[in-house]
Design brief:
By secondary structure, this protein is an all-alpha fold. It contains 15 helices and no strands. α3 packs parallel to α14, α7 (91-101) packs antiparallel against α9 (127-139) and α14 (242-261) packs antiparallel against α15 (263-286).
Length: 287
């Protein structure tokens, strides 16, 4: 039975208003939630934010030279001295590090790492895809239903984007798709404009229409709104529990991104999140 956090959820709109939108901080929101939920539930919040840690890890190990993403839970100093701190990272990061760099684990690390994918490099895919496959295998086996559904959606959403872009550039998508399931098979083999997925993927038309938008910012906004709507849909009947809070953090992360990309769009999404929180709370009161 999930715990309900009535006071915390009811106070989320006020927490938003207390922040200067120019310096909107998901990090501060995470700290507030950490102080008010059970530790086991906060671990779910941290897991939800692992994709940001993944980006920081790949940025370092693949020498991408991108800006550090502060929304992750792993401190920048850990990645700055990756060789010395690799043992502090999740097992799937450690596995990739040793496979990619060819370095050897110490005896202690060999003993400490319990989860190791034996077929990690059997399929010839690009390194980042191999890494993502290991992460998503972990995510899709989480005990929390919201995390399983969200990361299933996110994997499939990104695979569809990849498939469309590969097709338009004459690239074989098979090496660039995460996982090996019915959807990756359809993306690889189908010649239909929508991969014949109108019945199976209800957002496929929106996805294709978004990709066709010439303006980059507008295209990204439309794609993020698909994610936004899915985070709402997955918490339709969740009002005060950790699933509601997880959905809130997805939308907060989108706002954080847009306040940096385009302040006007960020403001619009901020208002939408505030209004959604208020209406959700009022609706839940009626029940």
């Amino acid at each position: 039975m999930m715990q309900n956090y009535y006071y915390l959820v009811a106070g989320l709109p006020e927490l938003l208003l207390e922040q200067d939108r120019k310096d909107f901080s998901v990090v501060n929101l995470k700290q507030e939630v950490r102080d008010n939920v059970h530790p086991s539930d906060y671990r779910l919040v941290e897991f939800l934010h692992l994709p940001y840690d993944n980006d920081n890890f790949l940025n370092k190990i693949l020498n991408r030279g991108l800006e550090f993403n502060e929304l992750g839970s792993i401190d920048k100093s850990i990645f700055d001295e990756l060789d010395e701190n690799i043992h502090l990272l999740p097992n799937y990061m450690q596995d990739f590090y040793y496979q990619y760099t060819g370095k050897t684990k110490s005896a202690e690390e060999e003993t400490a790492v319990h989860e190791k994918s034996q077929d990690f490099f059997e399929i010839e895919k690009v390194p980042e895809v191999k890494f993502q496959e290991t992460f998503y295998n972990l995510a899709l086996n989480q005990g929390n239903s919201f995390l399983r559904y969200w990361f299933t959606f996110l994997r499939d959403f990104n695979n569809l984007l990849t498939g469309i872009n590969c097709r338009r550039n004459g690239i074989d998508p098979s090496r660039h798709l995460v996982g090996n399931n019915w959807l990756t098979e359809v993306i690889t083999k189908s010649q239909a404009a929508d991969f014949g997925l109108k019945r199976e993927v209800d957002y496929i038309d929106k996805l294709i229409q978004s990709i066709d938008i010439p303006d980059i910012l507008e295209r990204e906004r439309k794609l993020d709104l698909i994610k936004w709507d899915m985070s709402v849909e997955l918490t339709t009947w969740d009002y005060f529990n950790i699933n509601f809070i997880l959905g809130f953090f997805i939308r907060a992360g989108i706002i954080h991104r847009w306040l940096k990309l385009d302040a006007k769009i960020g403001e619009e999404l901020f208002k939408r999140l505030f209004d959604d929180l208020k209406s959700s709370y009022n609706l839940s009161q009626n029940f």
